[in-house]
Amino acid sequence: MLKIIKGFVAFMAFVVFIVMPLGAQSSAKSNTKEAKMMIEMSFGGGGEAQVRTIIELEDNPATRDFYAQLPLNLEFSDYVGKEKISNALPKPLNTSGLNGYDPQVGDLFYFSPWGNIGIFYAKQPFHSGLVRFGRIDTQTLAKLKSQKRNFIIHFTKVAK
To answer: Can you give the pTM of this predicted structure?
Structure first.
């Protein structure tokens, strides 16, 4: 009988100290997935139809700072025939622990040395000061690239 009680106690200790914490970690991970930072980006108007797209932001210190500043209306212009940029952020973003990346066409990004935000519509090389925010869909990117003059992009949080 004593062996059965010891076995039961060992089994309960296993459940309480091993199995239950694993379940709590799994639950925390699923809650994190629900807390995605989603934004709407829109531009156009006047003689053109308004262009709207939803972007899921990466989770890093810079995107969290950017998200906290929303809503924003930023003026963008063309830069070197490869990207649209804005240097109108209200304050610099935190890039602690970020080491750059190899950008892709369609990336929404932050360039920390200049403090600007931008969107690549042509390939650019790796730079240690780049922070990827998210990706723009190809239809929106084509309309963005066709903007010949300076224009305003509206960034807002998407309600959860």
So the answer is: 0.77
